[in-house]
Amino acid sequence: MLERPFFRHPEMLASAQRVASFARLRAQKLDRDGAFPEDEITALAEEGLLAAPLPPKLGGGGLGQDAGSAALLAQVLMQIGAGSLPLGRIYEGHVNALGLVLAYGGPEQQRRAAADALAGRLFGVWNTDDRQRPLCMEGGVLRGRKILASGAGWVGRALVTAATPDGPLMLLLPLSRGERADLSGWTAQGMRASATGAVDFEGMRVPSSALIGEAGDYQRQPVFSGGAWRFLAVQTGGAAELLSLMCRHLRELGRDSDPHQRVRAGESAAALETATLWVERAARHMAQDALPPEAKVAYVNLARGVVERAALEILTHAQRSVGLMGFMRPHPMERVARDLATYLRQPAPDLALQMGGAFVLEQEGGPW
Ligand SMILES: Cc1cc2nc3c(=O)[nH]c(=O)nc-3n(C[C@H](O)[C@H](O)[C@H](O)COP(=O)(O)OP(=O)(O)OC[C@H]3O[C@@H](n4cnc5c(N)ncnc54)[C@H](O)[C@@H]3O)c2cc1C
């Protein structure tokens, strides 16, 4: 049983930094198919970070629940993403799942989820369906499977979306270690340690107590699209790590006084700062009521393009500055570049920008 954590803001950031340092040390070892950062998840639990996003009345630290602590959550996600992008992805899914249970679950479901998070159980959100066999539920029995499910085989509480005769529903399902998971299809270039696999739910019986919210809640705005700011924070952390690896390499080789290298370092730092400012502002916007929902969604949709462009610019600069050595194992840049390039692929980026642009065009007095 974990000790009940005591939450204060500076401590939560320091906790994230400690876990990130630990994850950074082990990331090379975990860069293989089928790997999962089990000890790092334990470290997150021991530092209280699995329970931190719960409100204080449920034993948490309220991390991410108002504008100030949403900016803190952004920093926590950036730190963890800098230490390990696979770990950042898994932690982001955990935070997302708890947020959905808190937003749409009943009091008893919230209480149980809080007890699980306090006990160190890992949550995840699995929305992506197998095209041939999408997840659906009829008469309390599931058919089909999820794909691209991070932490498959490791997540103990999976929040999945399933089509039902009443519309799409969220279900919170308990899973044991390895249950129904298949990681054989996860052959991506990077993010190997995220255990992003398929999970086959065929024949699973679902009690009514597992149903979270009402049909359509998962896609309700602004939470559905606006929640993307959290993966942007993790990606920004990965981009920061890449820049730091690039600068360290150039210093160690005595190549840091070259004007071309300085230009690339300066441009990368500016791009990173831009991404960071957008992510922190997106986090604040999402946590406060001042903006209408469509403005929040538009801001996050545009932030997606900003972070993607910044990260790709840093990736290109880092690879050009370090050169071939940055493509050779075990140089850490080789792995972080692969992880970042893979994790930058998120759903419908063109549509996100287009929708953000449409919102801007509709506004008379400036969008925000
Ligand atoms: C490491 C990792 C972990 C993940 N973990 C999870 C998880 O735990 N749970 C989960 O549910 N999902 C997970 N995912 C999946 C993720 O949410 C997205 O589904 C996935 O990353 C989509 O990437 P994509 O490039 O295929 O997107 P797409 O949306 O297919 O985009 C690819 C390209 O096609 C364009 N495009 C999109 N739609 C159209 C269209 N209709 N017509 C024309 N062009 C179009 C896009 O703009 C883009 O240029 C994970 C993904 C990664 C990389």
Automatic annotation (TrEMBL):
One of its GO terms (biological process) is fatty acid beta-oxidation using acyl-CoA dehydrogenase. Keywords: FAD, Flavoprotein, Oxidoreductase. Transmembrane segments: none annotated. GO terms for cellular component: cytoplasm. GO terms for molecular function: acyl-CoA dehydrogenase activity; flavin adenine dinucleotide binding. Residues 25-118 form the Acyl-CoA dehydrogenase/oxidase N-terminal domain. Signal peptide: none annotated. Its cofactor is FAD. This is Acyl-CoA dehydrogenase.
